[in-house]
Amino acid sequence: MQVAIITGAGSGIGLGTAEKLAAAGIAVLGVGRDADKLAQLDHVVPPEQLATLPVDLTDDDAPRRVIDLAVERWGQIDILINNAGIGKPKPVHETDDATLDYVLALMLRAPFRLIREALPHMRAGSAVINISSTYAIVGGIRGGAYSAAKAGLLGLTTHMAVQYGPQGIRCNAVAPGVINTPMTEDNFESETFKKMNDHMTPYPRLGTVEDVASTIAFLCSPGAELINGQTIVVDGGWSSTKYLSDFGRSSKWVAAES
Hints:
The chain is built from 9 helices and 7 strands, in the order E-H-E-H-E-H-E-H-E-H-H-E-H-H-E-H. By secondary structure, it is α/β, with parallel strands linked by helices. Strand 1, helix 1 (12-23) and strand 2 form a beta-alpha-beta unit.
């Protein structure tokens, strides 16, 4: 049985991915800060395939604790999915040092350190999946430290691919657009958000947790054996086109009030 570590596993993309991998017979170590959220895994992963660890990934001993638990429980690590993150980014001029340090620590430093700790236990056929964002591809208004951290994951992904690919360890990134999860659900009430997403996405709907989880599960599967060093964008064409809906093209544009 293969073994996967998923950070940010208690909700959203992490929870959806755990369900997908468990259905494929893969054991899951779900990691997150909130024990109550991690309890949701009990509903989607059979008990013999599940372990959980509530931990703050920015803690100095967090990577060792995560890896030690996986190895103690199952004796191996086959898949590492770096998914944990926080939303509500701010532009550079609104970002203080404490926020900058925490965002980089959680979404870049923690994945780096987890990978480093996991590598000695990964064999040929293993895979690392880093969850990035379209904000790493196109910048993203108000992206700030969030965009910087997610872009850093793409650099880490390509380094991993060339450095450890010869050992049979693959590394890829998945860059979702805005997905309706507990972290982002407030955005879906905003008219500005609708204009930026609904009217600028050529596919006739926005992405779901299922879309992203299915992509991650594929990258973990034997069918993706030759995919290495790639970023798979899951956004319906939002970041790669200049699409504007009929409504957007025909609407009267007015200056915003200052």
